[in-house]
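Internal tracking record. Fields below are filled automatically when a chain is submitted to the structure queue. Please do not edit lines marked as system-generated. If the sequence contains nonstandard residues, flag them in the REMARKS field before resubmitting.
Queue: standard
Priority: normal
Entity type: single polypeptide chain
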Amino acid sequence: MKLLLENWREFIKEERENVDRKEVSKVMIIDDDKVLVLKRSPESRWKPLYWDFPGGHLIDDETFEEGAKRETKEETDLEIGDLEEISVENGEKRIKFFKTTEFTGKITLDKTENTEFMWLKLANISNYDKLTPRVKELVKQELDK
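SYSTEM-GENERATED OUTPUT FOLLOWS
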């Protein structure tokens, strides 16, 4: 199994050449009154050691939804479905945020990208300051519904 994971990580590194660095998908996975966040690795180029939603850059010609599902599977081993688009940013990068309550599987982190995970209570979001920029805003938006 360890060899399989090492080979998979090497394959992913090789595939990074096909990454579209201008388009990103992120997913807010909600379970009752909690949201899944991942702690970015200390080696991350952007916001190391910050908590973020699962997601990442699109590869080749995949859609935002396909990228969201692939990245979530790679980072957490969860299968997700029924994605609802909740926000789009068109700055230096085009980022689409989705939310879902539909997920299956048991979380197994890819430790090369994230070091920890936590199910953060929606009501406690303001107690955390090491969140990537849109996480706090989008969770608060969800709470206001």
